Amino acid sequence: MASTYETVAGIISSTSDIPLERITPQSHVMKDLEVDSLAFLDITFEIDQAFGIKLPVEDWMGRVNEGKDKGDEYFIVGNLCSQIDSLRAALAE
């Protein structure tokens, strides 16, 4: 079974036509990989489907837009994977 990171990187790559080797755990999805917010919604939809979860993207975007958060917790690939793992763990409980 692929790791969360491998699955997420594959989804980002296939959804956004970004070469897989360009994606790292430290990549910021929007700043480094130049994924716009609409494309990010497509990515999160695919992530939701792949992992059987619902990412709270609207909440994340709202926090960033309101200036309450820089978004690094959600939009850096490694941190996004940690958020996914946390949501999956919460579902398993």
Assign a percent range to the helix content.
55-70%
Order of helices and strands: HHHHH
Q: From the alpha-carbon coordinates, what is the Rg to the nearest angstrom? A: 12 Å
Query: Spans of 5+ residues with little confidence (pLDDT < 50)?
Result: none
Please tell me the overall pLDDT.
Answer: 91
Secondary-structure blueprint:
Layout: H1 4-16, H2 37-51, H3 57-65, H4 72-75, H5 77-92
Task: Tell me about this structure.
This protein starts with a helix and ends with a helix. The chain has helices spanning 4-16, 37-51, 57-65, 72-75, 77-92. With 93 residues, it is an all-alpha fold. The chain is built from five helices and no strands. It has a single domain, classed as Non-ribosomal Peptide Synthetase Peptidyl Carrier Protein, Chain A (Orthogonal Bundle). Helix 1 packs across helix 5.
Task: For this entry, give a set of tags.
single chain; 93 residues; mainly alpha; Non-ribosomal Peptide Synthetase Peptidyl Carrier Protein, Chain A
Brief summary:
The chain is mainly α. The protein is 61% helix and 0% strand.
